[in-house]
Amino acid sequence: METVEQLVSFNHIHVQLNGGAPWGFTLKGGLEHGEPLIITKIEEGGKAAQCKKLKVGDELVNINGSALYGSRQEALILIKGSYRILKIVVRRYFYLSLPLSLSHS
Amino acid sequence: MTQIENMVQYDNGYTEEEEDYMMQEEEWDRDLLLDPAWEKQQRKTFTAWCNSHLRKAGTQIENIEEDFRNGLKLMLLLEVISGERLPKPDRGKMRFHKIANVNKALEFITSKGVKLVSIGAEETSAKEGLLLWCQRKTAPYRNVNVQNFHVSWKDGLAFCALIHRHRPDLIDYAKLNKDDALGNLNLAFEIAEKHLDIPKMLDAEDIVNTPKPDERAIMTYVSCFYHAFAGAEQVAETAANRICKVLGVNQENEKLMEEYERLASELLEWIRRTTPWLENRMSEKTMTQMQQKLEDFRDYRRLHKPPKVQEKCQLEINFNTLQTKLRISNRPAFMPSEGKMVSDIASAWQGLEQAEKGYEEWLLTEIRRLQRLDHLAEKFRQKATSHETWATGKEEILTQKDYESASLMEVRAMLRKHEAFESDLSAHQDRVEQIAAIAQELNELDYHDVASVNQRCQSICDVWDHLGTLTQKRREALERTEKLLETVEQLFLEYAKRSAPFNSWLDGAMEDLQDMFIVHTIEEVQSLMAAHEQFKATLPEADAERQAILGIQQEVQKIFHSYGIRGDLTNPYSTISPETILSKWDKVKKLVPQRDGALQEELAQQHGNERLRRQFAAQANLIGPWIQTRMEEIGRCSLEIGGTLEDQMTQLKQYEHVIVSYKPNIDKLEGDHQLIQESLIFDNKHTNYTMEHIRVGWELLLTTIARTINDIETQILTRDAKGISPEQMKEFRSSFNHFDRKKNGAMETDDFRACLISMGYDLGEVEFARIMMLVDPNACGVVTFQSFIDFMTRETADTDTAEQVVASFRILAADKPYILIDELRRELPRDQAEYCISRMPPYAGPGAMPGALDYTAFSTALYGESDL
């Protein structure tokens, strides 16, 4: 069996949604729950889906220029405070799989 | 014309002479008085005379007797002498022809009124002779016409005429009647018988009645008449003739003498008239007139003189003839009157001929002279006109003052043109001399209009001299002007050469003097001032150069003024005018002190700045460290373990108060900084602290103190909220402090990990990453004490609000694992009920009823998720 080492890395993705609530996505987690703030659902045909940039599993790190410290409460307030334009930055983790050895032992 | 008249007269005279001469010969023959010598002479003379005329007709005679026999030459002679034409001669050799020709000649003579006394026809036959005799004798009688010896005699008038002719006393012819032929005849027969001793041989009636009477009979009868009369007649004639002759001779001679005298006079008179004319040496003015004179002379020679020559010759001949005649007739010799001697005439004639010769020579000479004069005069005219034409306008050209306002190039061009003119002038010198020479010759040859020639020549020479003078003057003026303009040229070049760099220097100086400087240090100002001083040191030299340059321009102006050149004063080699130089110089002079002032100001400014810097520095150097100290104090405080959070708070509040009280210093520093900024001071070597540093430090201090206080407050809250005991807190603190290796109130990632491990957390990478995300959501790389506490307390606190909601729903659902719509509607407000109904998923667990909703999933989702 091959041994792989897994490295985790991430990208920050900047998204701007226009038009006002509802934005078409669901947030789960938050510092209150001891979990990162994750997008768990993107509603079909919604504004988030239309922008084609967001994916389920993206972690919210910045709303309208304000860096989040992880609290869902904070995020909700910021999002609900947005009127027509919502700018969010999400962090997307991905794993890099690197084969350690190419030859079978 | 008198000459011809003379000739006719002469001829007439001579013809009579011939007749006389012939008669004389008859007489001598009869008297046997012959002088052979004289005869020879006369013959010779007469022959010569005839020949002199016959020559004109192109013929000659040798012998008088022989050569005139056929009458041709006689007729010719008469034609020549008279100048008239005779009837055409009969060109025959027969006697009849000869007779006819001689008769023609005699008729001609007769027609001229010359009486021919004797008959000349020498070779007539008896009948013809007789007939001729009858005709001759009856010629005066008009009604008698003897043509023959028959019918002509029928009317008897012929006989009567014959008788009456010889013996007019015997018959009264006037009373005769032509128609009475019988009477006439009988009368004639009667008289003839009675008085003339001629028997009646004819019968009157017979003659009358016969148409053509017997020719022979009449002839015979008539011949008796002839014999009767001719003989008697001859005798009577002879006697009468002798007398007449003698008288006639006398008369003739006298006439001849008169004639001679007259002719001689006339000739002499003519000579006398003509000679002065030939001796006249008065010259005509024009050649035409002289040629006319020559023509007149030629006419004289050709037309007027020959007759006179003849006259003279004739005169001589006349004289000789006369003398001979006189001698022959025993008369005394003819002595012409005084002055009319042959010798006189000869000498007069000689004189004439001399005069002629002289005259002709003179004419030709004069004509030649006049010709030459005309030619010369014309030549003079042509040359003079041509020269005058050339000279026209030259004076105006030479007196032009065009060089006064011309440029150097133009003056040079003028000089070249002038050179060309000078050579043209010298080329004309020859011509002027020629003209003068011609004038001289005209003078020598005594030209009639020599005065005007001389006048013209004089004016030409005067003008020529004048032109020479003007030419010289112009040359001098042009050369002088050229020199001056060359000098000016040089000066202009010099000016251009020097003014350009000087102008650049001026421009540079102005620029430098107005140079905006930005300096930040006293040293910089001082170096600028030093440079300025250096510049000032160069001014005297520059001033000298300026004066020199302007001096050049003045020099040029002086030249222009003194020599009256009116040309263009502007320098073609330079665009920099003296005015420009002057104005720039003045500006430079003004700028120098200005710069001095500016530099001084700047220096003062810099000094001021330095003061400000020091002031600021002094302050900042105090404030900086003070802030640092406070920061350290605060840091230490937050790291304190001993003492309660409240103690910490108190301490911090104290610090805060101190800090706030210190603000005025900051403000003052700000004020100083403002000044510095306003003075555009950008650096300060007296301090390492910038205002920004201080500001940032101060704000940081303020922030730090506030945060730290806030931190403590939060800790207090958290402690109170989470019910963390002081011991717990201490423990947390201790751990944190321990792993806060850098002691700055925050843990680094590795520190945190170590910390977790020390607390028993065995974390894999993923787990640790997740935790990191929680405690350091902003990925700052550090964990604050607050986050640490939050994390730590969350692990132990009951905060699962989702479960609380589930428990609540369970109560409403009566402990069922699902809830029914009715129950929701019954227990919750309508909106929330509908919300739940619409959001709750159907329950799919065991014991599910239709309409059962899964509240657990809903709650989890509700609290675990937020729909946005």
Automatic annotation (TrEMBL), chain A:
<feature type="domain" description="PDZ">
    <location>
        <begin position="12"/>
        <end position="94"/>
    </location>
</feature>
<protein>
    <submittedName>
        <fullName>Shroom family member 4</fullName>
    </submittedName>
</protein>
<dbReference type="InterPro" id="IPR027685">
    <property type="entry name" value="Shroom_fam"/>
</dbReference>
<dbReference type="GO" id="GO:0051015">
    <property type="term" value="F:actin filament binding"/>
</dbReference>
<dbReference type="GO" id="GO:0043296">
    <property type="term" value="C:apical junction complex"/>
</dbReference>
<keyword id="KW-0963">Cytoplasm</keyword>
<dbReference type="Pfam" id="PF00595">
    <property type="entry name" value="PDZ"/>
</dbReference>
<comment type="similarity">
    <text>Belongs to the shroom family.</text>
</comment>
<dbReference type="GO" id="GO:0030864">
    <property type="term" value="C:cortical actin cytoskeleton"/>
</dbReference>
<dbReference type="GO" id="GO:0005912">
    <property type="term" value="C:adherens junction"/>
</dbReference>
<dbReference type="InterPro" id="IPR001478">
    <property type="entry name" value="PDZ"/>
</dbReference>
<dbReference type="GO" id="GO:0007015">
    <property type="term" value="P:actin filament organization"/>
</dbReference>
<keyword id="KW-0217">Developmental protein</keyword>
<keyword id="KW-0597">Phosphoprotein</keyword>
<dbReference type="GO" id="GO:0016324">
    <property type="term" value="C:apical plasma membrane"/>
</dbReference>
<dbReference type="InterPro" id="IPR036034">
    <property type="entry name" value="PDZ_sf"/>
</dbReference>
<keyword id="KW-0206">Cytoskeleton</keyword>
<keyword id="KW-0009">Actin-binding</keyword>
Automatic annotation (TrEMBL), chain B:
<dbReference type="GO" id="GO:0005509">
    <property type="term" value="F:calcium ion binding"/>
</dbReference>
<comment type="similarity">
    <text>Belongs to the alpha-actinin family.</text>
</comment>
<dbReference type="GO" id="GO:0003779">
    <property type="term" value="F:actin binding"/>
</dbReference>
<feature type="domain" description="EF-hand">
    <location>
        <begin position="727"/>
        <end position="762"/>
    </location>
</feature>
<dbReference type="InterPro" id="IPR001715">
    <property type="entry name" value="CH_dom"/>
</dbReference>
<keyword id="KW-0175">Coiled coil</keyword>
<feature type="domain" description="Calponin-homology (CH)">
    <location>
        <begin position="40"/>
        <end position="123"/>
    </location>
</feature>
<dbReference type="Pfam" id="PF00307">
    <property type="entry name" value="CH"/>
</dbReference>
<dbReference type="InterPro" id="IPR014837">
    <property type="entry name" value="EF-hand_Ca_insen"/>
</dbReference>
<dbReference type="InterPro" id="IPR001589">
    <property type="entry name" value="Actinin_actin-bd_CS"/>
</dbReference>
<dbReference type="InterPro" id="IPR036872">
    <property type="entry name" value="CH_dom_sf"/>
</dbReference>
<dbReference type="InterPro" id="IPR011992">
    <property type="entry name" value="EF-hand-dom_pair"/>
</dbReference>
<feature type="coiled-coil region">
    <location>
        <begin position="246"/>
        <end position="273"/>
    </location>
</feature>
<dbReference type="InterPro" id="IPR002048">
    <property type="entry name" value="EF_hand_dom"/>
</dbReference>
<keyword id="KW-0677">Repeat</keyword>
<dbReference type="Pfam" id="PF00435">
    <property type="entry name" value="Spectrin"/>
</dbReference>
<dbReference type="Pfam" id="PF08726">
    <property type="entry name" value="EFhand_Ca_insen"/>
</dbReference>
<protein>
    <submittedName>
        <fullName>Actinin, alpha 2b</fullName>
    </submittedName>
</protein>
<dbReference type="InterPro" id="IPR002017">
    <property type="entry name" value="Spectrin_repeat"/>
</dbReference>
<keyword id="KW-0597">Phosphoprotein</keyword>
<keyword id="KW-0009">Actin-binding</keyword>
<keyword id="KW-0106">Calcium</keyword>
